Structures are given as structure tokens and as C-alpha cells.
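Exercise 7. Predict the joint structure of the components listed below.
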Amino acid sequence: MIKTGIVGANGYTGFELMRLLAAHPQAEVTFASSRSLAGEEAAKTYPALRGAYGGMKYSEFSLDEAKKCDVVFACLPHGQSAEICGELVDAGVRVIDLSADYRYDDVSLYESTYKLTHPRKDLCAQAVYGLPEYNRDRIKNARLIGNPGCYVTASVLALKPLADAGLIDKRTVIVDAKSGVSGAGRKADIAYNFNETEGSFKAYGVTTHRHTTEIEEKSGTRVTFVPHLLPIKRGILATIYCDLKADAAEVDKAYARYENEPFVHYLGGELPEIKSVAGSNCCYIGCKAEAKTGRLIAVSCIDNLIKGASGQAVQNMNIMFGLDETVGLPRVGFHL
Amino acid sequence: MIKTGIVGANGYTGFELMRLLAAHPQAEVTFASSRSLAGEEAAKTYPALRGAYGGMKYSEFSLDEAKKCDVVFACLPHGQSAEICGELVDAGVRVIDLSADYRYDDVSLYESTYKLTHPRKDLCAQAVYGLPEYNRDRIKNARLIGNPGCYVTASVLALKPLADAGLIDKRTVIVDAKSGVSGAGRKADIAYNFNETEGSFKAYGVTTHRHTTEIEEKSGTRVTFVPHLLPIKRGILATIYCDLKADAAEVDKAYARYENEPFVHYLGGELPEIKSVAGSNCCYIGCKAEAKTGRLIAVSCIDNLIKGASGQAVQNMNIMFGLDETVGLPRVGFHL
Amino acid sequence: MIKTGIVGANGYTGFELMRLLAAHPQAEVTFASSRSLAGEEAAKTYPALRGAYGGMKYSEFSLDEAKKCDVVFACLPHGQSAEICGELVDAGVRVIDLSADYRYDDVSLYESTYKLTHPRKDLCAQAVYGLPEYNRDRIKNARLIGNPGCYVTASVLALKPLADAGLIDKRTVIVDAKSGVSGAGRKADIAYNFNETEGSFKAYGVTTHRHTTEIEEKSGTRVTFVPHLLPIKRGILATIYCDLKADAAEVDKAYARYENEPFVHYLGGELPEIKSVAGSNCCYIGCKAEAKTGRLIAVSCIDNLIKGASGQAVQNMNIMFGLDETVGLPRVGFHL
Amino acid sequence: MIKTGIVGANGYTGFELMRLLAAHPQAEVTFASSRSLAGEEAAKTYPALRGAYGGMKYSEFSLDEAKKCDVVFACLPHGQSAEICGELVDAGVRVIDLSADYRYDDVSLYESTYKLTHPRKDLCAQAVYGLPEYNRDRIKNARLIGNPGCYVTASVLALKPLADAGLIDKRTVIVDAKSGVSGAGRKADIAYNFNETEGSFKAYGVTTHRHTTEIEEKSGTRVTFVPHLLPIKRGILATIYCDLKADAAEVDKAYARYENEPFVHYLGGELPEIKSVAGSNCCYIGCKAEAKTGRLIAVSCIDNLIKGASGQAVQNMNIMFGLDETVGLPRVGFHL
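Solution:
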């Protein structure tokens, strides 16, 4: 059994890791730390955990405990994660960081985006971007994984094949993305009160959202990125617009690279919807070319908590420990 | 034009008063005070108000301003309302209090229920319980109205005809009620975060909810009251169980008292649902007798923010100022 | 009192007309016809109507009855509406057609879009496009109104000021629109079953949606239009992308044309959300310019059943009969 | 690997079986038949199945195919299931029937409840009621399982310990139950259209719902049963009222029987909510005694599609084939 620890376990990605790992046949959760809820039963905050975790309590973070783990998942806010992940790596523990702190190739882009000084620039070069469909080989031996952002996963999996194949004008990309409310995390914020969210819909972070630069760096395109808040709990759908420079048939060929991927499915001209992927670790992608304008419209869907966060983290763990990449990960979405 | 003021206008019942009064042909909002948001535009918190109220700002409460009003609506928390309403009444302003502070006939029952000492017992006797279907005549000349609770309105309108006619065993009453989340008010509380509420359902306040004693006092029955939280914004449905002591045909006769009511509709054996009343000031009631057990099952629905709070308050205002009781009040629910 | 009739009253726009007209002080519903539900009480399908309409039944359509009306609202499917509206106009009745049949200036564009032959081309020239903010003068004396489509209203109100002022490249317009499910009408279709829709989100009609040509004709731009289905009942939000050719300050000037409009509100750089307009006849518009790309991102919101259909129809009626344009129309959205 | 077949696989319980079995390490789906969709890819109806089932098509039912299975799950409507299950059992195939046809001990009660003549009374006696917490031993060797109803599972797991221990007055039981819309199945019915369901809530089947007699038979109590329709996809919460004849402490002792159950958790005075069990095979139960009335209020929650149908069916399969009862079944609910 792989011993895993979770730092910052009381948030939604921490919960989702505990949920997924409870069904993983070759991994177990050794500790789940939480600064704010240390000493409290995890099942008090998440009663769903009672069956699988009994009276397990959130602990204070302890490096000694963490060292006993084979891998630690860090579910801390951006900026707070870099140092603690660094300490763990220094101590020889393999780390999967769900924050943005180790995602960027270009540290200065990270620093300008997050308005922070990176405290462990020494580690950035060895950190591997945890998008298995592109970095599988490097993930295998990585000591430190920067697990991709949710919007980024949905966007890059759709954009990169097109950009890499030179099929699109890279300066025309618009990503109109829509996310469920769990993307905002577990917060006592009036903006996410049920009454203020249910039955409504809005754009937010227009021209300023921090995932923009990560999408740009990882897809190699320039992007207008407009995220919106959907009145659902889970799921992201990104509608992507770009000028097509090649024949529409080339698009299918570019996406053929996903043919043998267990979790990324290209549907051709059929456009995916959120209910097909919510609850699974899958990304579904579909495309339509518009003759009138020469534009390509691509739609990409994931579950933001699974393929967009905790599921992808477990997928990375599976690769790091030489397991079948799909072990313990749901391949069928809830639909209902 | 009736000049109205609203104290504590930044909460949901305050907003709903502003929404309803914007469509009222014979009343206008003169001031809307808010301690926490004084000086801010109301449209910042509720952008929906922009069209009808332009740049109107929440003010600090001022007795001098309030005195210029014909009537003031108090939308303050229980316990905080009694004194300010008292001051207004002392100053000769007519008051409609949406809190529980002036609802009870028996002040000691109020005090034991709310665990408070009532600061203005002198006014309690002259306060009129603002349930128009029962107190129309007294409301007309009232200086101080105790506007009924939302669960209480739904429950009492269904129970009282049965209890008054002696058709039911008053010790067998169970009210299993379900309310939308707006009933909890405008709060930055994790319990009402969208992610924690949407797609779920729970009972709360079991055996301890404060509306229990108000239902008991106003219906003249003993009640087991179990409220539940529905993942919708507006609306209450109460399913009421009691032992029937008379022939089922007597039930229709008892409800015939509502025949000419503009807002209370008895549907016989057809059971109402929330979408029929949400958005209107109506209460719909239906009943089924169960032969096997001799029980009566009554279902009662209202919009908790309208007939359960702000709409009923406007109905009371209409009566107090000699207007047609229905003026400015929606008689058709949203359905959609 | 203006006598109004509704043809095809059993659908959602018919219901919404009955709901709005119940609160209109100077109009009343004389008949509500429905082929499929003739003879049935309207309150059976829409119990919310019981209070205001009592036992009123849907009737078979009768030209004789219709002739007694001052105005008839036609709520029939596209293609079925043209002839019956023609008969009414021939008989001297003023008509507001909520279908697409009389919306287009270019009848051949209608015919290619809807794949129909228009049976009353003779009337198309005299039909007036019922967008009050642009056609107020012609609406006043119109005998036949083509009431705009819901997506079109949201899109054109945002696009036209920009296009008219020459601020944008008209070939770069992308409208990424999101609509509540009521836009699909009242249908026993598995695709709109609660289980298949709630918690999900999808694009549909990509490159083929029929509102595309109406948006193009009325805004004078070429449009990539991608509608999506939101898991909410009411409301449309359109996120509009286009290349800005002028200084961003010009944008505010272009939208100043709405300054005195009762129902269209320009918010500058604040972006509207659906909850602010749902339940009202308002359209809210906001804009952000993106320096990096030179693009303008405009967001426009309406209630698809009100400003996008039945409310706009009532607004047109008010103008046709010389009333204050806002009479009987909600100016404050539900928010909740 | 256990070879399983699914008859009537296109409905929601059939889908849920395919979803659960995709994650089951010791079972696989050999065929999935559907009369109405035979020849079509399952992923056309449920795109979520694409990843795990590829292009698998629904087949016509064939007894020869079914005979190759170790067990067949029947997901057919009540009345249509009895004969086909009978044929399968005759042919030596073990069968888990998700319909009501083999649930009742008293066949005449089944016949009066469902208004049908049972075509295979010969098999009823050997059919085992598939509630593992009570019938584990008989399930082990059963050839034919009558898998319990969803409302019944939630109600009986809460009621039976109380009734068996003689703690309650069995004639005072009221079950006020609330279910998500998936309980109504996959139907093109206007009543379950998103617009007619979202934001609303209603009682249905009052005094007539067919699960009433099954609850009564399995719990040994007389029940007033009132189901309601929640605007959520999954989950049942039953609020149960009964007169307590014993000390409240006895209640905890009665529920101690579930102490070692993997899927049934008694929470004492903490009342469960749907989000804690939705997505898992768990049932959570909590209780409060009300001193004023001597009533006990018990709340029981399950996921109607999992513990209330397909998950319980898999649990039964695990027992029948000597596997650990929990294999392949989710123990942690979604929460989100």
C-alpha cells in the first residue's frame, strides 16, 4: 500500500482526495492535516467520510509524520504551498502540489501572475507539470509535481493538439469557460451563498483571471479567457474559439493523439456536456468548424474536482509509483 | 402616496419590500436604512434595484426621518426590533414589525421561546397579529403590527379552520415543513454555501425551532414541528398530519371560510406545490383523508418572502391605509 | 381597459403574458385559446393562475372572438403563426406575433433560415420589428409587430450601439450565449427532463441556431453564435467578443443612447448577472476592453420570458395604445 | 470474473449498474439488453459510458445470451419483470430483480397493491428479499432476489429496529419521505421537465403510493406514507414519526444492531442529510425524542439509485458469490 498524506485536507480538493483514495486498492491515507480544524473529526465537516474513515481526525501538520509517507498531496492556497512542499522535497518525500506554486516553466510569469516572490526558485526547474497526457515520462520519476489548474486542464487538453499541429492562428484564441461553484472552494462568502448563486449565472475575473497565463504557457497560444460561474456544484465546460488555418479534416488527425488515452476522449463533431464527465476523471472534447467565418469551435469538459484537481493528482501518483494509471479512478461519470 | 420607511433594509425581507413597493401604485419608499451598509448604494448589494431606485443609498436610521413616514417596516433580527419599534410607535409612526417581537399574545411564551426579556411589554397588548384572514378588523386601526412568521403563516392558515371547527384531535398535530434557503436570510455562513446546500436536503431545529410556539399559540393546537431545508430559493410547503375526529366532508366546510379571500385558496383534494405560489402573495391549501388510519393530511404552500414576510406586510399596510387589500401584490405565482 | 386575446396560450410565453397582464392596470385578457387544451381550465396546467383567473378555460381559437379584442398576442410556433396573424390583421385586429414569422426585413433570409415559404409576404413590409429602444415611433402605429427573439434581444441591444458607432470590426463578432431551460418551451422531451438537465451544461445548435441570422440582420454584424443550456429556469446571459477599432472611452459614449431608457441599463465596466434581471423587463449591459488583445468583451443579460418575449410584447402593446411604456411591467428583478 | 447481464439496461437503474460494475474488480457486464434501444450504442444515451464501455451496444434480450451469465439483473417495470425472471431462474441463471415483482412475502398483498395477477406464484416462496442487513444468510444461496424499493430501504432500515424491539406504537407511524427526481425514472413526461420541477416541491401519491404496503410488510408497522418530489437528482430522506413507548435510551440500543454493518450508520442524535450519502451505498440514520409529545423523530437517508436500487443489487451479488460485501461499492458519498 502506498502511504499518502494530505496537507490542507479540510478543503474540497482534500475531501475529494480522501473520497477517491478510499476506493483506491493500493493507496491509503496516513494523515490528513488541517491548520484550522486540527483535532476535529473529518466526518464532522464531511459526514460522508464516516463510513470509510470512522473517527479519523484532522491533525496538525508534522514533518515527522509526513516523512513516513510515500507521497504527500498539498492542498494549500497559492503562495502558502511553495515552502512546505519544498521542506517535504528536501526531506525526501515525493510531493504532488495542487496549488499553482510549481506549475510554471517561467517563474517570473508565476510571480507576475500571482503577485508573489517565489521562495523556492531552486525547485522550480525540477518540478514536473502534472498533465499525464503530455508529461507521462517525466512524471514517473518526479519528486515534485505541479498539478495543473482546473480551467487549464480543460483548455490545454483541447488547445494543445491544434496549436502543436499548427492548425490554428494562435493569436485568435478565446476561451469562454464555465465552472461549477466547487471551483471557488469551501468558503463562508456571501457571494457563494445559495441564494446569491442558484438560478443565476455570471462572468467573473474578466481579463484578470490567474489561469490565463498558465493556459497561455502550456498551450503556446495567446488567450482571451473569460470564466463564468455555473449554478452547479461540479464540472467545467470550456467553449473555445479560434481561426482555423487548415482543413477541418486535419483537426481529427490532431486529436488522434488521444486515441489510446484512458481518460481523454475526442468525440469528433459531437459536443460533450458536463453530465458526461462529472464524477469521472475523464476529459471529453468535441469540435465544429464554421464555414461562414473559418472559425473552429471546440468544446472541452471535465470534472473540476477530479480531472481538474484531485483525480489528476491520483493519476500522477499512479504513474509515479508504477501502477496502472487508471487504478482507483472513476472512468464513468455520474450522468445523474 | 403612502410614505414608507424600511429599517434593516439590506436583508432579504427588506429587499423584497423594496421590490414589491416599486410596483405599488400608492406607496413609495422614503428611506431604507441599514446599519452595516449605510452610505452604500442599495443597487450595489441588489443590482436588480437599479432600474427602479437608481442610485438610492442605504441610510443610517434616524428617528426624524422615520417620523416623516406614514408607516415603517422593521426588518431587524428578533430581540433588536422591540425597542426601535417602540420608539417609533411612541413618536406616532405606525409600524409593521417583521420580527417575532410583537407576535405573541402571551409575552412569557415569547420570552421563554426567544430566551429574551421583552423591553416593551407595555406595547404588546396593543400590537395586532398581522394575519389579515383572521385579524382584518383590528389591523385596520393598529399602530403596531406583529407580522407573522413564515412557517407560522403556512401552518396556521391550514390548521386554524380545522381546530376552530373542532374537527381534529389537537394533540396529534405534526407539521413536517420544508423551506427554501432564503428563509435563512442573507448570511456569509458556510452552511448556506451553494456547495453545501445544492442537491442536498436536511431537517434542522428538530424539537427546538422557535416557530413551534407561535404555531401552537395561533392555531390552538399542540405541535410536533420539523422544518427542513429545501435546495430552492423561495417557498415553503408544510405537510400537516392530524387525527380527524369528524367526517371528511366537514373539512371542506371548515375551509369554506376562505371562499372570498383574495390570497388564500382551498383546493379540496388537489394538493398544491411550491411553484404555484412562489412569486405571489397566495397561500394554497389541499387535504386528503386517509381511511386506513383516520388521519387527515393537509398540505399548505406559500412564498416565504411574500405571504410569509414582505407581501403579508404590504397586505397589512394596504388594510391599515384603507386601500384595496390586493393593491400592488402579485396574485399569480412565477410557475417558472 | 385594453381587451387582449392570446392565441396558443398554453405555452410558457402565453402563461407569462397571462401572469404579466394580471398585474396590468389597463389591460385584461379576453380570451386565451389553445388547440391542444381547449375546454380545460388554465389553472389545471398552471395552478398559479387560479387566484387571478379563477376557472377561466382555454378556448378554441375563433376569429369572431378575436375581433372583439383590441390586440391579439400570437404565441404559436414559427411557421404556424404567419397565416393566423395575417387573418387577424386582415380583420382589423392589431397583432403582436411572438414567433419569428414577421421579424425579418429580408423575407428570403427568413425563408432560408426557417426552411419555409412565407405565406403572407404581402404583410411583411408593414410588420414592425418590436424592439422599442429602436423602433418606438413605428411601433406606435403598427398593425402587426414581429416581437424579437430572446437571444436576439440580448445580443442586439449590446451589439447595435457598437456597430452603429463603427467602434468594432463587424466580422469579428462572437456571441457565446447561455439560456435557461424555459427557452425550450413546454415540452415532454427527455432532453429537458430534470435528470438530464440539472447539474449539467452544454452547447447546442452550434453553427446552426436560427437566431443567428436575426442577430446578424438586426445588429448589422456577422456573428458566430453559440447558445448553451443553463440549468436554471429563466434568464439569458450573452458574452460577446469583438475586435475594438476605437478607444475604449468611445464605448461608453455609444451606450449613452440608453441613458433614458426605462428598461435598458448600461453598467460600464461592471458586468451584469442573470439574477439582477430575471423577473424584470430589464436588459443590463456591461463591457471590458482587453488591452492585450484589443478585444472588447460585452456582457448582456435579460429574462428570456420577459424582455426576451412576453414582457417586450406588453411593452410594445403599451406603446401601441399610447400608455406609459412601463405600465404593468416589473422593473425590479427577483434577485432571489 | 463474475459474468453479469442487465435486462432493461437503458433506464436509470440499468445505467447505474453499468457505472458501478465498471469499477467492480471482480465482475463485468456481458450484455445489456434494451427493447427500445436495441442496436444502439449505450454511449449514445449515456455518453458517460464511453470511456469504460467503448462502443458497446444495447442488445435484444436473448435467453441464450443470458444463460452464459452467472447472474442477471432485471431492471424492468413492475409486472413485466416476473415472467422473464421466471424464465431465467428456470434456465438456472441466478437473478436479481429490481422490480417489485418478487419482493412481497404475501403475494396477495402484491397483487392488490399493483393490481396485477402474479404469473409465477410458484417462485415467490423461494425469492429472497434482498435487504442484506436482515437476510444475508438467505441471500447467499438465493437463486432469485427481490431487490427492495428505494423508499422501503430508507424506511425499513430505520423502522425495523424500533419495531422489532417493541419500542414504538406500531399504529402511529408516519413516514414523510422526500426523493430526488431520478426515482421517477427516465421519462419524456412534462411533469418531470426541468421547468416544471426545478425550484418547486410537492407531495404525490398521498395515501396511494405502492411502496406503502412494502414498508408495512417489511417493518411490521402500519404506515401513513407521504412521498414528496425534491428538486435534486439523487437521494431520499425519510422523516419518520412515531409514538415512543420506551425510554429514549432504548433507541440507541435497538440501533446497535447496525454497529458492524459496512453500509448502515447510526448517528444517534445527529440527523443525517442527503449530501452525506448521495453517491455511496450507505444509509445514515439519526433520531430525536420529543419530550413534550412522547414522539420519536427518526431521519433516514440513502442514495435512491445506489442503496435504494443498483448498489444494493451489487451488494446482493457480492453476497451471492461469496465476495466481500463491500467490493466495488462506494463507501464515501459525493458531498459535492
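Discussion. The mean pLDDT of chain A is 97.
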